[in-house]
């Protein structure tokens, strides 16, 4: 009798374990879906190598409108701007932006995601630099 009830307890426990695993599986599937909707950088954005690759890309693609090191030109300055967050930068660089008659094209068609993240890393690194207005004083 004692043997039987412990056997039953055991099978109840393993059933609870089974549902526990299924439940945990559901949670991690939900976490994976949630991750997809918010952009996540594929590498460390403070890595000097990544920032440097972003700087090279910026000099080729962005300097024409945003000036040397983002100091401003046709478009406003993007250096020394602590209001620009990682998510905002990724979304804005990907989709482009319009300010009156000035238009920044969509970059997601011509640059792949890792390249856009390198640009984000570079622009973030420019936050530490003084804003161009501050330089002239
Ligand atoms: C054809 C000109 C042009 C080019 C090239 C260009 N931009 Fe822009 N960019 C603009 C304009 C215009 C705006 C919107 C005006 C503004 O926000 O100052 C803008 C806005 C931005 C903003 C948002 C600034 C804010 O205050 O919201 C970021 C960040 C940015 N550009 C990054 C880039 C990066 C990185 C590249 C290179 C891949 C690039 N831009 C290339 C014209 C350009």
Automatic annotation (TrEMBL):
Q: Which keywords does this chain's UniProt record carry?
A: Heme, Iron, Metal-binding
What GO molecular function terms would the record report? electron transfer activity; heme binding; metal ion binding
Q: Which Pfam families match?
A: Cytochrome_CBB3
Q: Which InterPro entries match?
A: Cyt_c-like_dom (IPR009056), Cyt_c-like_dom_sf (IPR036909), Cytochrome_c_Oxidase_Subunit (IPR050597)
**Has keyword Metal-binding?**
yes
Any keyword Nucleotide-binding? no
Record domain Cytochrome c: where:
49-127
Q: What is this protein called?
A: Cytochrome c domain-containing protein
Organism from which the protein derives: Methylocella tundrae
């Amino acid at each position: 009798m004692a043997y039987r009830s412990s056997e039953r307890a055991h099978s109840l426990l393993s059933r609870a374990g089974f549902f526990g695993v299924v439940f945990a599986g559901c949670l991690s599937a939900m976490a994976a879906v949630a991750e997809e909707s918010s952009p996540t950088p594929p590498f460390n954005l403070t890595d000097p190598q990544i920032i440097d690759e972003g700087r090279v890309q910026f000099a080729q693609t962005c300097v024409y409108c945003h000036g040397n090191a983002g100091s401003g030109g046709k478009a406003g300055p993007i250096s020394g701007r602590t209001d620009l967050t990682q998510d905002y930068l990724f979304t804005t660089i990907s989709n482009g932006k319009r300010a009156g008659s000035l238009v920044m094209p969509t970059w997601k068609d011509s640059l792949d995601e890792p390249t856009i993240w390198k640009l984000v890393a570079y622009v973030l690194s420019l936050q530490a630099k003084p804003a161009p207005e501050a330089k002239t004083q």
